[in-house]
Amino acid sequence: MKKVVLSMALIAVLGLSFTSCRETTDKTGEAVDNAANAAEDALEEAGDAVEDAAENLEDAVDNAMEASEDAVEKAQEIANDSIDNAEDNAENAVDAANDN
């Protein structure tokens, strides 16, 4: 009778340990799945951040190009105005010299 009780106790303990191992395995599997999902989400967010940065860089380059073109146009206008003023002043000087 003692052997039967001890055998049953042994079977119960082994049964609990196998059940416990299955639960641990299940929990480990869930943890691995959660970690994989978190890594996937982080990679997607990083990819989105890279895309946003590329778009911002493209916008910045476009804005810089437009500003440079505007500055060149303004410099050309100023140079043309200066040339026109110099021509007018030269004509006025010639006219004044001819009048004297």
From TrEMBL:
Transmembrane segments: none annotated. It comes from the Bacteria. Residues 91-100 have a biased composition (Low complexity). Residues 81-100 are annotated as: Disordered. Keywords: Signal. Residues 1-22 form the signal peptide. This is YtxH domain-containing protein.
